Amino acid sequence: MPNAKEVTAAKVTRAQNCHRYYGVIVYVRIFRGELVKRQKVKFSRNQKVYQVERLGVKIPQEVLKEKLGTGEIG
């Protein structure tokens, strides 16, 4: 992924959801860097590249954001 912003891997929890309209929802914690909407991400387990379509946090309701930074969980 040339020119991609580096995010030291977000820790992915096993609590993945499958939403009726949005598909698979993955919860992550950003340890360093930032994750931005429409950014391409590569999963280390299967080496597949995906684009971030929606980004947000739950506090307890869902709040959409343009980016997640260091220390955030979304």
From TrEMBL:
The protein's matches in InterPro entries, at most eight in alphabetical order, are given as: Transl_B-barrel_sf
Q: Which domain of life is it from?
A: Eukaryota
Kindly provide the name given to this protein in its UniProt entry.
23583_t:CDS:1
Question: Which organism encodes this protein?
Answer: Gigaspora margarita
